[in-house]
Amino acid sequence: MTPTRMLGAALVAVMMALTLTACATMQAEPEPSLYKRLGGREGIANVVDDFVANLVADARVNARFKGMAVPAVFKLKSNLSDQICDATGGPCSYLGRDMKTAHQGMKVTDAEWSATVENLTKALDKRKVGAKEKSELLGVLGPMKGDIVGQ
Ligand code: HEM
Questions:
Q1: Do 61 and 1 fall within a single domain?
Q2: Do 40 and 94 share a domain, yes or no?
Q3: 48, 99, 121, 141: which to mutate for ligand 1, most atoms within 8 A of CB?
Q4: Rounded-to-integer distance, Cα 44 and Cα 39, Å
Q5: How far is the CA of 128 from the centre of ligand 1 (A)?
Q6: Least CB-packed of 10, 79, 87, 124 within 10 Å?
């Protein structure tokens, strides 16, 4: 290779490296976790509060929660919050029972499942959670249906 060609090749290599660096720095910021976009612990706790209030007010499902004492409802809310935080990339660990065990023997029906999802959606709407976050959260919880319904 002549010195001129070598210089040319070196120049091309430097330009390629510069282009690659520019591409790397121009890359969009990674999207915050769903946990963060839901408003973190506080945002999730607010949604869970409204979700459970909706369930308790809904004649299609509230018989399920009627017998629960106040501390049990409190525990259910804290478990639901931890579960959502854990499943959406937040700094929590869900320590409650797995969904199959928690709903064992209840014979939850398809209609009750739909009513529950409706009540969750209503809570997310009330708290002005965006359409994208709403469908992402439902996408995270949806696959639990098989462990909850009909057990
Ligand atoms: C998105 C769907 C659902 C999720 C994420 C969910 C999540 C949970 C969680 C985390 C618990 C607490 C587990 C524990 O105490 O260790 C629980 C308990 C319970 N769930 Fe669900 N659940 C869902 C759907 C339903 C449905 C459709 C029903 C019936 C209408 C239902 C009825 C109950 C009841 C009655 C308890 C209390 C059980 C007890 O304390 O003995 N759940 N659920």
A1: no
A2: yes
A3: 99
A4: 7
A5: 24
A6: 10
- At residue 72, the pLDDT reads 98
pTM score above 0.90: no
Ligand 1 atom with minimal separation from the 102 CA = 13
Number of Cβ within a 10 Å radius of residue 83: 22
- Residue-wise pLDDT for 92-141, tens only, equals 999 999 999 999 999 999 999 999 999 999 999 999 999 999 999 999 99
- pLDDT value of position 10: 61
pLDDT for res 8:
59
Do residue 104 and residue 37 come from a single domain? yes
Task: Tell whether 108 and 144 lie within a shared domain.
Answer: yes
> Nearest CA to 96 among 118, 112, 81, 108?
81
Residues with CB under 6 A from ligand 1: 61, 64-65, 72, 76, 79-80, 83, 96-97, 102-103, 108, 112-113, 116, 141, 144, 148
Range(s) of the domain holding residue 24: 1-30
**Confidence band (pLDDT; 50, 70, 90) for 24?**
low
CA atoms within 13 A on the CB side of 66: 7
Q: Give the helix ranges, DSSP H, for 27-109.
A: 34-37, 40-57, 70-87, 99-102
